[in-house]
Amino acid sequence: MTLIDIQRIFNRALLLTFDKKKLLLMSIVLALCGVMVVFCRGLAVNSSQYVALSLTFIPVFLCTGVLLSAGILLIRIYHDEVKSKKIKYRDILAKSWEIIIGASYFAIPVILSYLLLWMLMGIFVLLRELPGIGEFFGAFLAFGPFLLNLGSLVLCVLSLSMLYFIAPVVALKGTNRMQLAKVLMWRLQSDVFSNLFLGVIAVLPLILFLAMLIAAAFLTGTVCFACEKPMFFIMQWFIIMIPFVALLSPAVVFFFNFAAEAHVLIMKKNT
What we know:
Helix content is 86%, strand content 0%. The chain is mainly α. It has one domain.
C-alpha cells in the first residue's frame, strides 16, 4: 500500500460522494437520528445531571444501529458505482433488506453495556446523597464515576469503530457472525497501523464538519434564540436540525465510501 493507492481511493470516494440520491438518502437517515437526539435533549431539560447524562449518550448508541444499516446500503450502492453497473436503489434495497435489519442488532451489546454503566453510576449517586456520610463517599469513591464516564466515552469510540470496520464486511460478506469475526480479527491483526491511518482519514472530515456544526448550533442557541420553555427549546433545535443534517450528509457518505475502499485495499494488500 503506497501513498498513490491512498490518493486514488480517497479521490474516488470523494468523487462518488456528491450524488443527489445518496445525499438525500443520508439526509433522511440523519434526520431520523436528529429527531431522536432532539427528543432526548428535550427530556433532559430541567432534569437532574444523572438523567441528563444518560439522555446524552443513549441517542448516540441508538443512532449507531441506524447508521450501520444505512452504511451497509450505501456501501452496496458504492460497490456497484465503482464497477460502473446500472444502479437501481429499489433493487439494492430489496436484496439487502434482511442484512440491513440484522446489522442493526450489532448495536444492542453497546446499548446494554452503557445501561449497565449507567446503573452502576446510579449507585454512586445514591451513596453521594446519603445524609452525613454522603460527601465522604463522594470524595473517597470519586474514581468510580470517573471510570464509568470514561467507559461511556470508550463505548462511543467503539460505536464509531463499528461503523468503520463492520459496515464494509457485512455489506460485502453478509451477516454470518463466524465469518465476520474471522475477517475482522484477520484484518486488525494483519496491519494495525494501516487500519488506524485509513480510519483517521475516513473520520477526519466527519469530525471537522460535526464540530463546526455543533459549535454553530450552540452559538445560535445561546446568542440568538435562547428559549426558556421546553416546548420552544425542542422546536428550536428541531428547526436547526434541518440544515444540520443536510450539511453533514456529504461527510457521512464519504466516511462509508472510504471505509469500503480501505477494507478492499487492506484485504488485497494482505492476500
